[in-house]
């Protein structure tokens, strides 16, 4: 059995992979490494397993994670950013500067969809990457994540405690009547406008409809996106790792 792990800036996402199919997807806080260890032990007590993971965490956290996992799993393999993987080419001159989570999604998107694909990953940071149908990664854009956006109001006394709200359904309002809703709607408009602008430019350059792939915890919350061809995959890093591991 293969255990897949996506270690981000604030969360650890874990899934079980069998025949490239995901199951038992769980989220842990980066602070709860002891709970992750317990979960890993429970899994491996039932069946011998290997670990395949991606990480953008600090070196200190990486050492702690490896110390734990090396004694639990039969094999531990880290997926890292490289100049190329199979037929996919990295746009970065220094490939390891591209986060391995982003690189895994670029590789995974090409291997699964084989089309011009714009990947929008919504996490601590919103990253945009573009990979062509031929497997050429052209680069990307970085935008502020939701939590970091609210921090820009921290030095304004009557705004510092306001947090973004996750909408249960798209709002028809552009102008809101409360400060909290104005901040949330303002952020949503800023992000959706940026995504629409980039998507429009990529469509124009490619001369065809680009696939828009929305991934990450907040992917389903982004509304007002103008795209004929759109897919929402909240756990696409894990799905990509599963596809990649199956090819190694």
Question: Which key phrases capture this entry?
Answer:
Nucleotidyltransferase, domain 5; alpha/beta; 2 domains; 248 residues; 34% helix; 5-stranded mixed sheet
Tell me what you see in this structure:
With 248 residues, this protein is of the alpha/beta class. It has two domains: 2-78, 2-Layer Sandwich (Nucleotidyltransferase, domain 5); 84-236, Nucleotidyltransferase, domain 5 (2-Layer Sandwich), CATH 3.30.420. The chain has six helices and twelve strands. The chain has helices at residues 33-46, 59-69, 100-113, 146-150, 179-206, 236-247; strands at residues 2-7, 11-18, 21-29, 50-55, 75-78, 84-85, 88-89, 117-122, 125-131, 137-144, 211-215, 230-233. The strands form three sheets. Strands 3-2-1-4-5 form a five-stranded mixed β-sheet, with helices on both faces. It has a five-stranded mixed β-sheet with strand order 10-9-8-11-12. A two-stranded antiparallel sheet has the order 6-7. Helix 2 links the parallel strand 4 and strand 5. Helix 3 packs across helix 6 (236-247). The longest helix is centred in the last third of the chain and has 28 residues, at 179-206. It starts with a strand and ends with a helix. The model has no long low-confidence stretch (mean pLDDT 90).
């Amino acid at each position: 059995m293969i255990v897949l792990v996506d270690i981000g800036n604030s969360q650890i996402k874990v899934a079980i992979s069998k025949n490239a199919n995901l199951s038992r997807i769980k989220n842990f806080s980066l602070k709860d490494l002891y709970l992750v260890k317990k979960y890993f032990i429970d899994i491996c007590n039932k069946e011998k397993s290997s670990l395949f993971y991606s990480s953008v965490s600090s070196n200190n956290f990486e050492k702690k994670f490896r110390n734990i996992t090396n004694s639990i799993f039969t094999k531990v393999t880290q997926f890292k950013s490289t100049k190329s993987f199979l037929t996919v080419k990295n746009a970065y001159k220094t490939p390891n500067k591209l986060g391995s989570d982003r690189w895994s999604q670029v590789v995974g998107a090409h291997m699964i969809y084989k089309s011009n694909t714009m990947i929008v990953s919504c996490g601590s940071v919103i990253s945009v990457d573009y990979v062509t149908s031929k497997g050429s990664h052209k680069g990307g854009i970085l935008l502020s994540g939701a939590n970091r956006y609210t921090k820009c109001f921290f030095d304004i006394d009557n705004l510092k405690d306001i947090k973004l709200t996750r909408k249960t359904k798209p709002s028809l309002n552009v102008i809101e009547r409360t400060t909290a809703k104005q901040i949330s709607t303002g952020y949503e408009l800023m992000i959706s406008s940026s995504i629409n602008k980039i998507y429009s430019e990529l469509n124009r350059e490619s001369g065809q409809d680009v696939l828009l792939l929305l991934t990450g915890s907040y992917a389903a919350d982004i509304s007002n996106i103008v795209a004929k061809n759109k897919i929402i995959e909240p756990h696409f890093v894990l799905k990509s790792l599963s596809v990649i591991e199956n090819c190694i």
